[in-house]
Amino acid sequence: MDIPRALVITGIAVVSYLLIQAWQQDYMAPTTPVTQQQAPADAGPSGDEDSAHPLPEPDVANDSGVPDTGGEQPRAPATADTPANPGQRIQVNTDVLNLEINPVGGDIVRVALPEYPRHADTPDQPFVLLENDQARTYVAQSGLVGRNGTDTKDGRPTWQAAQSSYRLSDGDKELNVDLTLQQAGGVEIIKRYTFERGSYLVRVSHIVRNNSGEPWQGALYGQIKRDGSEDPGKSSQGIIPMPTYLGAAYWSADKPYNKLPFDDIQEEPLKLTQDGGWIAMLQHYFVSAWVPDAQGRYTYSTLYRQNRNEYLLRFVGANQEVAPGEEKVFYAEFYTGPKIQDNLEAISPGLNMTVDYGWLWFIAQPIFHVLVFLQSGELDLFGLDMDLGVGVGNWGVAIILLTFIIKMLFFKLSATSYRSMAKMRKVAPEMQRIKEEYKSDRQKQQQETMKLFQREKINPLGGCLPMIVQMPVFISLYYVLLESVELRQAPFFLWINDLSVMDPYFVLPILMGASMFLQTRLNPTPADPTQAQVMKWMPLVFSVFMLWFPAGLVLYWLTNNLLSIGQQYVITRKIESES
User: What angle do CA 43, 46, 50 make, to 5 degrees?
Assistant: First the structure.
């Protein structure tokens, strides 16, 4: 009798520990304070180079943040590494992106996402992913470095644009924004941003037209610059807000997804040379990533500029030569938007893994796809691709239906468990008699109890087995609700306008606690007084524990409890009537 109760308590304790440990390891990295010290120098050159086109080695000791490969100064006049006047920024608007480009360097310095409101109650205020102001620095930079490059440690060029604003017109599928630069000797460079309708992927091309009489040489680089400020999309609800990961990630040949927290960047900067790949900055629900041409070879590196409290994630390509009279395109892609798995997977291998479902991803992924199917009618799982054209249209209803499906999968196991618990409830008086009769002989008491279990065909472990088996599902659903942007600001009914955050009025946790209390009344009372008190208080403890969990997760647990109560009640009454 003591064993199943102990296992139930142990299971709950283990789940609590695992969730807290996941918060600590994956999300609770401290924000770096701003200090005024000299930035550390780079560790030195890498020995991995392409013989035909050696990779330029970034010199990160300079304060401009631009990879400096040495050699001659650029032929284009350079300007200081300071932001341009906000009025001079180039405005670009598509159906899914509101974007600003700074002519100094031609950097993307602001990205707003009109399809994703900042708050559910302010749908006209888009979420701002990238920005460069007094509150926060988070920008995407790119350029050409090397002997004839546009960017050096001494400054960056001012690009020219034909107009100050661009808009993707109705009916157009693509928008090109060209920035031009003239270098000495007749070299013309076009920095072209290409936007597509419905896409968060920006194609960035540096077109070098060598109209001079000498070979032109340079290399493409791209980098993400972000300060150590907090994630603006992080939930602030409750005493214990839902934690989220803020930091870097990159792809490598031996591992498609590598996390790189800010602390690791400070202690051991990344230096990796490989073919293809990507490097990204992650935050809750959104990601920005540089994805260079998969056919090229690049050096990926990170840098912490301590004097500015800034983190740089960059790639630098191989040196390329453009002969006189020829034209060459240096190409990369930049993604800035929501973590939509199908879109990310189509861009580059492993990029979809920035939607991090933790160590139970193999359970969380099917749960996510089934939820999408129930909500929208679209299913893409295990090679099966289908679209019914219609779903329930409500994520909360989809969670309830998912609970029914999971309950059906575990129906037989649960039924066996509830029969065992009902039989234990039935023989409770006999167990109490054995306890009183052999209270001075503990060993004899256990022997007689086991004989009773064998005679009545009772499995003492059966009562806790369904709960233990379903714990991985519970943890996986937690990660799905926490990480899936599709459920961001997803309403249910009445007061629940966002299933991914806590219930603002704690109604669902209270109902869940009440259902747990009712469920304990159907279970046999533990013979041990201490265990009886523990089980008595367990619904209250678990309700408090769930107060700050996503409403969708509590909705799942409440629905599961109600279904379990119904199943257990029917089985218990059936066995009692048989006796």
Answer: 160
In the three-class reduction of DSSP (H, G, I as helix; E, B as strand; rest coil), residue 329 is classed as: strand
In the block, residue with structure tokens 């050696």:
54
Cβ contact 56:218 at 8 Å: no
Q: Is the pTM of this model over 0.85?
A: no
Do 558 and 474 meet the contact criterion of CB atoms below 8 Å apart? no
Q: What is the pLDDT of residues 223-264, one digit of tens each?
A: 999 999 988 877 655 555 566 789 999 999 999 999 999 999
Question: How would you classify residue 71: left for phi > 0, otherwise alpha for psi between -120 and 50, otherwise beta?
Answer: left
**Residue 429, φ and ψ in degrees, nearest 5:** -60, -40
DSSP label at residue 276: S
Measuring CA to CA, how many Å separate 106 from each of 82, 179, 205, 498, 531? 12, 7, 12, 38, 67
Any idea which residue has 């070299």 for tokens? Answer: 187
DSSP string, 128-169: EEEEESSS-EEEEEEEEESTT-S-BTTBBPBPEES-SEEE--
Residue in this structure with the two tokens 């009798």, named with its chain if needed? 1
279 SS3 class: strand
Kindly report, residue by residue over 361-418, the tens digit of the pLDDT: 999 999 999 999 999 988 877 667 777 878 899 999 999 999 999 888 887 777 777 7
Instruction: Write the pLDDT tens digit of every residue in 413-435.
Output: 777 777 777 777 777 777 778 77
Burial of 426: CB neighbours in 10 Å, binned 0-12, 13-18, 19+: middle
Q: Are 143 and 78 in contact (CB under 8 A)?
A: no
State the amino acid at position 186 in one-letter form: G
| Cα angle 17, 19, 25; round to 5 | 95
Measured in degrees and rounded to the nearest 5, phi and psi for residue 107 equal -90, 150
The residue type of 210 is N
Q: Is the dihedral of CA 170, 176, 177, 180 positive or negative?
A: negative
Single out the residue of 357, 298, 303 nearest to residue 333, CA to CA. Answer: 298
Residue 486 and residue 479: Cα distance in Å, rounded?
13
In DSSP notation, 23-44 reads IIIII-PPPPPP---PPPPP--
Q: Residue 69: which pLDDT band, with cuts at 50, 70 and 90? A: low
User: How far, in Å, CA of 519 to CA of 568, rounded?
Assistant: 8
